Amino acid sequence: MKKPLDAVVVGSGPCGALAARSLAARGWRVALVDRHAFPRQKVCGDALLPDAFDILRDQGLADAVVGAGHPSSVLSVFSPGGYEVRVSGDFLTVRREVLDVLLHRAAIQLGAEPIVAAVSSVSENPDGVCVEFRSGPTLQARACILATGADTRLLRSLQPVISPAPTAVASRCYVQSSRPLDRLVVTYDRGLGPAYAWIFPVGEGLFNVGVGSVYRSQKRFDHRSLFERFTTVFPEARALMATGQIVSPLRSAPLRCGLDRHALRPGRLFLGAGEAAGSTFPFTGEGIGKAMATGLLAADAVHAFLGGEGEGLDSYASAVLRLEPRYRAYSAAHRLLDYPRLMDLAAWRLQKSHWLAGRLSGVLQEEEDPRSLFSIAGLLGSFFR
Ligand SMILES: Cc1cc2nc3c(=O)[nH]c(=O)nc-3n(C[C@H](O)[C@H](O)[C@H](O)COP(=O)(O)OP(=O)(O)OC[C@H]3O[C@@H](n4cnc5c(N)ncnc54)[C@H](O)[C@@H]3O)c2cc1C
Known about the structure:
This protein is an alpha/beta fold.
């Protein structure tokens, strides 16, 4: 007879897959539940920034991911007025239907037990946690990690103060084009309003092209016309479309950014991790790296709890909140979207100041505190260096 489950991880995106893999690697019996069979599509820009890459390297997964991806060494960021800032770094794009299946399989290889089913409810009982499905048997375990991405329904059933509203919404499609563009491009072009857009090469003439904007409940999203505007007003996007064609429908998905304290510990035996806990960065919308990082922190806390060590599950929230200053700095950068002239000034300074450009590269490599850059003091300080 099988031993009872130690833990259940709900959601097998980058967060849940790495959490389940980490627990299975330490000998715990863990179920990895997702409502989709893999491979599955996930609406995303497909770009891995250096922090994501570092985690994959630490986990021994970098070779497999690099083999399936497309490397770039330059990220071009355009300000609202068109000032271009080029940042060097190790960037990689991997289509999410490829990345996520790699991570899902890596978890199963180390012993995580996959279950394809939508979880309909979660609760606590005297024996631990109870995870129920619309049909089929209920799971019983000692602890549960909710890694359900921007879908917060299970989290809110435990912790009703969690907001159902996302912080942003973004849309992407794939474009096949003969344009020889080999760097990642992000723009905050004035013609898009307070929104951003990107073109990320994913290899073999395929480009992930998308737009994103802050969620404002009173406004209906019209990303289709935002996308049309992007491919009309932004020269690089116009050139891409002139030599290419859209090969997949424009699809949208919500983002949860800026860390949600309430979602980290929604119940005594539950941890929330990844985008479910708002782990995506504001301003850049970069979420894969921090989804994996919080998933691993949640796994560490569950491991300590199961082994009766240290603070157990209590250690998780404080470990994640150590990242909070970074999120505050990105939120400050995000507020710049309402001040396009200030963004232009910052970009102009970045073009002129090697010191400032070095700071930006360091922030993306996570070697620098983003507060050194995304602050009025940081910007003014550059005039004296
Ligand atoms: C358009 C767009 C572009 C983006 N571009 C980038 C980018 O270029 N780079 C980057 O780093 N980040 C990007 N992001 C953010 C990134 O996609 C997320 O931060 C990341 O996917 C979060 O990972 P996760 O594992 O927390 O959640 P997810 O990847 O969303 O995985 C959650 C999983 O939970 C499952 N699930 C949910 N509810 C249930 C349930 N009740 N029962 C069973 N399973 C369930 C889902 O099926 C899903 O597989 C982008 C986001 C969007 C919307």
